[in-house]
Design a protein that fits this description.
It contains 10 helices and 10 strands. The chain is an alpha+beta fold. The chain has 2 domains: 155 residues, GAF domain (Beta-Lactamase, 2-Layer Sandwich); 147 residues, 2-Layer Sandwich (Alpha-Beta Plaits). A hairpin with a 2-residue loop joins β8 and β9. α2 runs antiparallel to α5, α7 crosses α8 and α8 packs across α9. The longest helix is centred in the middle third of the chain and has 25 residues. The protein binds guanosine-5'-triphosphate. The site of guanosine-5'-triphosphate has 15 residues, from β7, α7 and α8. InterPro entries: GAF, GAF-like_dom_sf, GGDEF_dom, Nucleotide_cyclase, Rev_trsase/Diguanyl_cyclase. This is Sensor domain-containing diguanylate cyclase. Pfam families: GAF, GGDEF. It comes from Herbaspirillum rhizosphaerae.
């Protein structure tokens, strides 16, 4: 068996895949529709939307295969993302890269594979739409074109979600994306009986930055703030731009005490940023912190609103002190 080598742009590719925030999400009809279609059109028992993560391939849509993921080392799709065209193996038993692959030797005993790379907006190949069979088969040029067309449908679905849930200025989730990810994360915390804490940030006197230094500089401050959030919080925390100069972070598996330590670290990073940048103004913020209470916080909007109100109260107290 030959393990798939890493593509030259592996780091960028992984960043892009993670930015899509699609890994480990629930199955969705819009992707299952495409795999169902592929299965029917090609008359194969298995079809997948497979995403190639650092060490595994994870199936966003899975028709006919019993597992949710496999290691990347034994994946066919890891090979398929190396090229631009459809990658197909007529008979795996006759191919030196795959004849002794556990997916060939043991269940599901794959004999035929065809996978078309799925490209994200920047061209990174994040995974494949693939079809599999338990008997060898020929894959014609016409078949290739059809698989490419179906892959385009998957790419369009991925792009549509990104547009609808991503803030175009900062490239982090917008309110809609944030809420969708929060629901997912809170369900996980409830199931695992883990705490979760919400931070609601609002930049202080942000309007002044716009007024004194121009809108472009205001934009730059918003981007810097989002970058600082991304840097200080964990990859598993949910980060979003909720409105103009409002940001929110949901910390999963952290109670209020731990969260305050994270906030102290964040505050240091912002102070360092202000010192090093010397842009004629400082980025400052007010924040409201609320711990999730699964019996009280039934409604996500109200939970976010609670943190917003607390932030506003802190802002008011600070203003009164001045
Ligand atoms: N540059 C820029 N400004 C924006 C954007 N979206 C909203 N704003 C501005 O952000 C400002 C938000 O101001 P507020 O939060 O109301 O007030 P503030 O000046 O931050 O004052 P306090 O919140 O009371 O500390 C408004 O002037 C908006 O015009 C954006 O995408 N880019």
């Amino acid at each position: 068996m030959i393990k798939p080598p890493l593509p030259a742009n592996e780091c960028v590719r992984l960043d892009m895949l993670r930015a899509l925030k699609i890994l480990d999400t629930t199955a969705e009809e819009r992707f299952d529709r495409v795999t169902r279609l592929a299965k029917r059109l090609f008359e194969v028992p298995m079809s997948l939307v497979s995403l190639i993560d650092a060490d595994r391939q994870w199936f966003k849509s899975n028709i006919g295969l019993k597992v949710l993921e496999t290691s990347r080392d034994i994946s066919f799709c890891g090979h398929a993302i190396l090229g631009d065209d459809v990658f197909s193996i007529r008979d795996t038993e006759l191919d030196e890269r795959f004849f002794d692959n556990p997916l060939v030797k043991n269940g599901p005993k794959i004999r035929f594979y065809a996978g078309c790379p799925i490209k994200a907006a920047d061209g990174s190949k994040v995974g494949t739409l693939c079809i599999l069979d338990v008997k060898p088969r020929n894959f014609t040029d016409e078949d290739k074109s059809l698989l490419k067309d179906l892959t385009l449908m998957v790419e369009q679905e991925i792009a549509a979600v990104q547009l609808a849930t991503m803030d175009s200025l900062t490239s982090i989730s917008n309110r809609r994306g944030f809420e969708a990810l929060c629901m997912h994360a809170l369900r996980f915390c409830t199931r695992q009986k883990k705490p979760a804490t919400l931070f609601f940030f609002d930049l202080t006197r942000f309007k002044e930055i716009n007024d004194r230094f121009g809108h472009a500089e205001g934009d730059r401050a918003l981007v810097s703030f989002s970058e600082l959030l991304m840097l200080c919080f964990r990859e598993t925390d949910v980060i979003g731009r909720i409105g103009g100069d409002e940001f929110a972070v949901l910390l999963t598996s952290s109670d209020k005490e731990e969260s305050e330590l994270v906030l102290a670290r964040f505050s240091e990073s912002v102070a360092k940023h202000n010192e090093s940048e010397e842009r004629g103004y400082n980025i400052t913020y007010d924040v409201g912190i609320v711990e999730y209470n699964q019996s009280l916080d039934k409604n996500l909007e109200e939970f976010i609103d609670k943190a917003d109100k607390l932030m506003y109260e802190n802002k008011r107290l600070k203003k009164n002190e001045l």
